[in-house]
Specification:
327 residues; alpha/beta; D-Maltodextrin-Binding Protein, domain 2; 2 domains; six-stranded mixed β-sheet; 12 helices
Length: 327
C-alpha cells in the first residue's frame, strides 16, 4: 500500500518535473519550424498579409515560419485548426473578422474567446470591384444598377455566407434604402476564387478588398471603382472613396489578427508575442504592407479583446438584418 506521504511526495515530484519540462521548453523555444495557419485560400488578402508577417516573424524567431492554408467551411476549418492546435508555440494563426460571427450564424462554437487574442495585424477596407470590360465604369453605375434591379438580379461574392465581404454588401444595400439581402450572395472560399469568377463574367460585382484585386487589376481583368473607407488607398491613389464617388457614407473595414491556441506556457507565450511585435515593427514588413495599401495595426491583447467584443455586436446586427442570425 502506498502511504499518504509517499503519494504526496510523488505528486510533488511530478509537478516539479512538469515545471522543469516547461521551463526547458521555454529556454529552447523555438528549436524547430513554426506553422502559421491561414483559414483562407492562397492568393487572397489574408494569405498576402500572412506571408508578409511570417517572413518577419521567422527572422525574429530564427526558425522557418511555414504558412499553411486550411480552407473550407467559410473559414471554420482553419480557425478551428488554430483553436484546437497543441499549445506548444509551434502552431500560430491568422484569424479574420469572421470569428466574431460564426456563433451568431450557427456555424459552430468558434468565437473570439476560442483564441488567445494577441493583436490585429492590419485593417483592410472593402471596395467595389467589377469586370474590367463589363457594363460598370464608375461606382455610381453600380449604385444605379442596384437601385434599378430586382432582388437577386445582381450577384456578389468574396467570402462564405455571413463573411466580411457579405456584410460589406449588406451594408451597401442598406445605405441606399434596399434590404440587406437584395443582392444574391454566392459563397466562396476567399477573395481570390471570387475574383477569378468575376473576371470570367460569373458575378456582377465584388466588395472584396482592393488589395486582393491588385494582381488582376494590374492585368486589366478587373477594375476597382471605389474604396469603402474614409480615405483612399496608397496602392490605388486614383480610386475614390465610396463617399467621393457616390456621396454615400457607408464604410466597411475588415481586419486580420495574430492569434494563438489557448494554453501556451507563459514563458513561451511571452517569447512568441514579443517576437511577433518586433516582426510587425520591422521596416520591411511595414513597407510591404503599406505598399499594398494595407494599414498596419498593433495593439495589446486587452485592447484587441475589447475591440473584438464591440465588433461582434455590430456584425450581429447586420447578420440579423440578413436573416442569418441563429443565436
Amino acid at each position: 500500500m502506498i502511504g499518504r506521504r509517499t503519494f504526496l511526495s510523488g505528486i510533488g515530484g511530478l509537478a516539479l518535473s512538469l515545471a522543469a519540462a516547461w521551463s526547458a521548453l521555454a529556454q529552447s523555444y523555438p528549436n524547430r519550424p513554426v506553422q502559421m495557419i491561414v483559414p483562407w485560400a492562397a492568393g487572397g488578402g489574408t494569405d498576402t498579409v500572412a506571408r508578409i508577417f511570417a517572413a518577419g516573424l521567422e527572422k525574429e524567431l530564427g526558425q522557418p515560419v511555414n504558412v499553411v492554408n486550411r480552407t473550407g467551411g467559410n473559414g471554420m476549418t482553419g480557425h478551428n485548426a488554430i483553436a484546437t492546435a497543441t499549445p506548444d508555440g509551434y502552431t500560430v494563426g491568422i484569424a479574420t473578422s469572421e470569428i466574431a460571427s460564426y456563433k451568431t450564424l450557427g456555424l459552430g462554437d468558434i468565437t473570439p474567446d476560442s483564441f488567445d487574442l494577441v493583436s490585429r495585424i492590419t485593417t483592410i477596407p472593402a471596395g467595389i470591384t467589377v469586370k474590367a470590360d463589363g457594363p460598370y465604369k464608375t461606382a455610381q453605375d453600380v449604385i444605379d444598377a442596384l437601385k434599378a434591379s430586382k432582388k437577386d438580379e445582381l450577384s456578389a461574392s468574396g467570402t462564405g455566407v455571413g463573411g466580411a465581404w457579405h456584410l460589406a454588401v449588406a451594408g451597401l444595400n442598406k445605405s441606399i434604402g434596399l434590404p440587406a439581402d437584395h443582392v444574391k450572395y454566392v459563397p466562396s472560399q476567399g477573395g481570390a476564387p471570387a475574383l477569378n469568377e468575376l473576371a470570367a463574367g460569373g458575378l456582377s460585382f465584388l466588395t472584396v478588398s482592393p488589395i486582393e484585386a491588385l494582381a488582376l487589376a494590374q492585368a486589366g481583368r478587373v477594375k476597382v471603382l471605389a474604396v469603402m473607407d474614409t480615405k483612399r488607398l496608397s496602392s490605388y491613389p486614383d480610386v475614390p472613396t465610396l463617399k467621393e464617388a457616390t456621396g454615400l457614407d457607408w464604410t466597411f473595414v475588415n481586419w486580420f489578427a495574430f492569434v494563438l491556441p489557448k494554453g501556451i506556457p507563459d514563458d513561451v507565450r511571452t517569447k512568441l508575442i514579443e517576437a511577433a511585435a518586433r516582426a510587425h515593427a520591422r521596416p520591411e514588413v511595414q513597407e510591404a504592407l503599406k505598399a499594398r495599401g494595407i494599414t498596419p495595426v498593433w495593439e495589446t491583447p486587452e485592447e484587441f479583446r475589447a475591440f473584438a467584443t464591440k465588433f461582434a455586436n455590430t456584425t450581429a446586427e447586420l447578420l440579423t438584418d440578413l436573416g442569418l442570425a441563429k443565436n
